[in-house]
Design goal:
This protein is 30% helix and 20% strand. It has 506 residues and is of the alpha+beta class. Strands 15-12-14-13-17-18-16 form a seven-stranded antiparallel beta sheet. A five-stranded antiparallel beta sheet has the order 5-6-10-8-9. A four-stranded mixed beta sheet has the order 1-2-4-3. Strand 5 and strand 6 (124-128) form a beta hairpin. The chain is globular, with a radius of gyration of 23 Å. Residues 1-5 have low confidence and may be disordered. The structure holds dihydroflavine-adenine dinucleotide (FDA). Dihydroflavine-adenine dinucleotide is lined by residues 47, 86-94, 97-98, 110, 129, 152-154, 157-158, 160-162, 164-169, 212-214, 218-219, 451.
Length: 506
């Protein structure tokens, strides 16, 4: 359209003249649809292949800042030429919100801003948003064998999205969320002003630790508190099928896993196998993976007491360093060099994910129906994460992430597919599964995890009100939603930073 091409010219000219270079010279910082590297830069961190399709709207420009001034300039010029802004760190958003928009837009892609500066003296680090979790874990382990950081498992997740949406992993029952361990941050607000914690104030600093960064500005760096981990941690894995006592153990897991000592993380992954059943039928496979902050010797009595039915022996346990446990949960061999954590090449697939929280154990009737639904579809898996530990001690209002004391466990449902022609069928299946579980999970609101972004919960219209946005806002944030709206109204009253599920100003 003519207005589209007008914005096109305006933005490029504004940006290049701000840089002091001619519009026709390539700056290496802003890329147009005709730039030869536009597509490779766009696709580089698209983790969900659903959004690689040519039918998915693409940005008018991609800006790859090398410094904060480039971000300020991109904000100023996108305002000037009426382009919406999407900020991308690691590109792992489940719904592609960091790089897809239905209105003309630019992407500010932070992959060049990824320095990590560790200060062992006060056990802190400054990490830029474009760094990955793998780069952070690697940098910490290079400096100390007894320090770590509690965040997610997948090494290519970006710091920017992850920390601003919460962030949990295998040691979160002991140390809390990634966001719980942020002690300072640097944000560029809607006016292009660079603010640290003191300058942004406690309200905004609160909001960006779990409320999602994309509603508030561009967060460029985070100061985090490192945590002390033992030099030896222990890993184990046990599997059971449905006809092998899996259901009984899972039933018990629902109440026992959340009460285990905070040092012990025991999550359950449910999948479907064609061959595991004795009768050769499809069956549900229950995989329990444990990670203990301590030695096998200390873990053994703990497991024999809490889950005797596993029949675990010393030989079932593998002792290793914390960084090796990171490799293990990231899907690498623990004997590999930890340098694999620096690999930014992502393996993408097409998928749809949804989330839930459980406050009362799911009844046996509920579980039986669930097993029946699961065997209908092979290409799915469900990850159940026990809460408890320090998560029960942190007040619900400490950060926007509200899923704390009364949570037994969180659920992530995922379904993936090869051909995007089948997408509708798989998405329909996962929605049916989600509907089925409604009576058995948290209610009023039915809770959801922001970092498992799900647009089924509701999307903003052109002028979404606070009340309308509650359909998804209360699920992600419960009572904290109101405060997020108040912060938004103060720091971005014109709603410049917006997307399908951004916090509306009051
Ligand atoms: P991306 O760049 O897509 O950003 C996500 C959102 O944050 C977007 O709305 C974006 O605009 C905004 N944003 C990003 N950077 C910003 C910045 N600097 N300033 C302002 N806004 C910004 N979660 C978890 O807690 N534990 C886990 O173990 C996992 N595991 C996992 C595995 C895999 C394979 C995937 C795909 C995802 C997960 N996640 C997860 C979910 C993950 O935490 C979530 O998708 C994060 O938001 C991803 O952050 P990125 O920076 O990669 O995403």
């Amino acid at each position: 359209s003519s207005s589209g091409s007008a914005s096109h010219e305006d933005f490029l000219q504004c940006f290049q003249s701000g840089l002091g270079v001619n519009t026709n010279t390539s700056s290496g910082i802003v890329f147009t649809k005709t730039s030869s590297s536009y597509e490779s830069i766009l696709d580089a961190s698209i983790r969900n292949s659903r959004f690689l399709a040519t039918s998915v709207p693409k940005p008018n420009f991609i800006v790859t800042p090398h410094n904060l001034f480039h971000i300020q300039l991109a904000l100023r010029c996108s305002k000037h030429s009426n382009l919406q802004v999407r900020v991308r760190s690691g590109g792992h958003d489940y719904e592609g919100l960091s790089y897809v928009s239905n209105v003309p837009f630019i992407i500010i892609d932070l992959f060049n801003l990824r320095s990590i500066t560790i200060n062992m003296e006060d056990e802190t680090a400054w990490v830029q948003s474009g760094a990955t979790l793998g780069e952070l874990y690697y940098a910490i382990a290079n400096r100390s064998k007894v320090h770590g950081f509690p965040a997610g498992s997948c090494a290519t997740i970006g710091i920017g999205g992850h920390l601003s949406g919460g962030g949990f992993g295998t040691i979160f029952r002991k140390y809390g969320l990634a966001a719980d361990n942020v002690i300072d941050a640097q944000i560029i607000n809607v006016n292009g002003t660079i603010l640290n914690r003191r300058a942004m104030g406690e309200d905004l600093f609160w909001a960006i630790r779990g409320g999602g960064g994309s509603s508030f500005g561009v967060i460029t760096a985070w100061k985090i508190k490192l945590v002390q981990v033992p030099s030896t941690v222990t890993i184990f894995e046990v599997s059971r099928n449905l006809d092998d006592g899996g259901s009984e153990i899972f039933t018990k897991w629902q109440t026992v896993a959340p009460k285990l000592p905070a040092e012990l993380f025991l999550h359950a992954v449910l999948g479907v196998s064609n061959s595991a059943s004795r009768l050769g039928n499809k069956t549900v496979v229950f995989s329990f993976t444990g990670m203990y902050l301590g030695t096998a010797e200390n873990l053994l009595p703990l497991m024999q007491e809490s889950f005797a039915e596993f029949g675990l022996k010393r030989s079932n346990f593998t002792e290793m360093s914390w960084i090796q446990s990171v490799l293990y949960f990231a899907g690498f061999s623990v004997d590999q060099s930890s340098e694999v954590l620096l690999n930014r090449n992502i393996t993408s697939s097409s998928f749809k994910t949804k989330s839930d929280y459980v406050t009362e154990p799911i009844s046996s009737t509920g579980l039986e129906g669930l097993w029946k639904m699961l065997v209908l579809e092979e290409s799915q898996f469900i990850i159940l994460t026990p809460y408890g530990g320090i998560m029960s001690e942190i007040p619900e209002s400490a950060t926007p992430f509200p899923h704390r004391k009364s949570m037994l466990y969180g659920i992530q449902y995922s379904v993936s597919w090869d051909s995007n022609e089948d997408a509708t069928m798989y998405i329909k299946w996962i929605r049916t599964l989600y509907d089925y579980l409604a009576p058995y999970v948290s209610k009023l609101p039915r809770r959801a995890y922001l970092n498992y972004r799900d647009l089924d919960l509701g999307v903003n219209g052109p002028n979404t009100s606070y009340v309308e946005a509650q359909s998804w806002g209360l699920k992600y944030f419960n009572q904290n939603f109101k405060r997020l709206v108040e912060v938004k109204a103060r720091v971005d009253p014109q709603n410049f930073f917006r997307n399908e599920q951004s916090i509306p100003p009051l």
